[in-house]
Write a structure and sequence with these properties.
Rossmann fold, 322 residues, 4-stranded antiparallel beta sheet, Alpha-Beta Plaits, 2 domains, AAA+_ATPase, nucleotide-binding, single chain, ABC-2 type transport system ATP-binding protein
Length: 322
């Protein structure tokens, strides 16, 4: 399903705010959704900072898509409150949704129409897109997602990745304040994934907030400023990505041209260390200044010392398996 709206011309789009300096683009409090005996979302409190690229992470069945659907008014919560662009959901949806572009649970288009014809049908109901601007807006959106050459092909002949691109194009027909993408790289090859990354970066640079869910942790780490981790409907962690990674940082990365002597000195100092690329990784032991002093006394050249920060996959595993 794809939803669409707009905020006027690109010239009217505000410059990107620093995350945290403006009211949240989306906010939920004590949000809960129950389907029969299954609790899909369980008491979630979450802010999506304006101007951020916010990654929603979690195993299958963690509640990501259900939470996104409640944000957009597609699913009614069992309890709790939702705000979208500062307006309550569902009462404020008529005013908020024109400023929101979304691709949720795959795009829905007419199979016997071409990509361009489908997109023109979507553009025709854009509340902030004048009829005279429909053609140029459609062409620009197709070009932006790499479908200009396939615009005359029927939708039923599109690959999964091409269908995802067309859904993204529908969400980007006009400038947005908030773009919501549920698994936007599903079915895309590596080149297509890189293109989506570029689109997300461009959206943030022009002032939009981007909320996305993905199973590709490396892509989330490459584009997201903030993340939330869910499991079985509960929110386990949320915040600025760099701070979350720093919070679980451990050990030290030491850059040296003599890893052999460095390992000997570090182990004598009580550290657990191993060679790691161009230097040495200390996994446990004395603090960094103590290790640095021991290396200097032993006349081992040290070109750098920094706290070892894990990648997002390591952080995700620690949070979800703890």
């Amino acid at each position: 399903m794809s939803t669409a709206g707009g905020i006027g011309t690109a010239q009217e789009t505000a410059q990107r705010p620093e995350p945290g300096t403006a009211p949240p683009a989306a906010r939920v409090r004590a949000l809960r959704k129950v389907f029969g005996r299954v609790t899909a979302v369980d008491g979630v409190d979450l802010d999506v900072p304006a101007g951020s690229v916010f990654g929603m992470l979690g195993p299958n069945g963690s509640g990501k898509t259900t939470l996104i659907r409640m944000l957009l008014g597609l699913t009614r919560p069992t309890s709790g409150s939702v705000e979208l662009l500062g307006l309550p959901v569902p009462a404020g949806l008529p005013a908020a949704l024109p400023d929101v572009g979304a691709l949720v649970e795959g795009p829905g288009f007419h199979p016997f129409l071409t990509g361009r014809e489908n997109l023109r049908r979507v553009a025709a109901v854009e509340p902030r897109l004048a009829a005279r601007d429909t053609g140029p807006a459609v062409d620009a959106a197709l070009e932006r997602v790499g479908l200009a050459d396939a615009a005359r092909r029927r939708f039923r002949g599109y690959s999964l990745g091409m269908k995802q691109r067309l859904g993204l194009a529908a969400a980007l027909l006009v400038p947005r304040r908030l773009v919501v993408l549920d698994e936007p790289t599903n079915g895309l090859d590596p080149a297509g994934t890189r293109e989506i990354r570029a689109v997300v970066a461009d959206l943030r640079a022009t002032g939009a907030t981007v909320l996305l869910s993905s199973h590709l942790l490396s892509e989330v780490e490459a584009v997201c400023t903030h993340v939330a981790v869910l499991k079985q409907g509960s929110l386990l962690a949320a915040g600025e990505l760099g701070r979350l990674l720093d919070a679980v940082a451990g050990g030290w990365e030491i850059a040296t041209t003599d890893p052999g002597p460095a390992l000997r000195v570090l182990r004598e100092a009580g550290a657990t260390a191993r060679a790691d690329g161009p230097g040495v990784l200390v996994e446990d032991g004395p603090d960094g200044p103590v290790l640095f002093a021991a290396l200097v006394r032993a006349e081992v050249p040290v070109h750098g010392l920094r706290r070892h920060r894990p990648d997002l996959e390591t952080l995700f595993t620690r949070i979800t398996e703890s």
